[in-house]
Amino acid sequence: MTVTNIKNLPDGKYFTEVYFSEQRPWKELKRTRTTVTLAAVYVDRDPAFEPHMIPGGFCGHCDNQQDQTWLFREISPIEHLTIRMTNTGWKYKGQKFFEDKATYFMDWNF
């Protein structure tokens, strides 16, 4: 089962690319023993989620960012990449990918 915060996401196998404080979903297209080719998943902001900003920091602090949801838009026909299995998990040029997770996360506090 894929863990996700994206509404109306089509069935399939997904990965999540994990940045320092943000996350981006990818859909599996092709798999070999040591590689997986992925296509980018595009999302739009869900109008049901409204960041709640309170004073603090440089311009405010979002205290409900863990509740964010997104709306599925499309799977990219052209933005593809191939990740490889390493001793420490799936990676692309050092960037980590988690399997069976399709989350988009924007860090409103960064």
Outline the structure in words.
The protein has 110 residues and is mainly beta. Helix content is 0%, strand content 55%. It is built from no helices and eleven strands. The two termini are 30 Å apart.
Count of helical stretches: 0
Uncertain residue segments: none
Q: Gyration radius, to the nearest Å?
A: 15 Å
Q: Summarize model confidence as the mean pLDDT.
A: 91
Sequence of strands across the biggest β-sheet: 3-4-5-8-9-10
- Return the domain count: 1
The ordered H/E elements are EEEEEEEEEEE
Compact summary:
The protein is mainly β. It contains no helices and eleven strands. It has one domain (3-102).
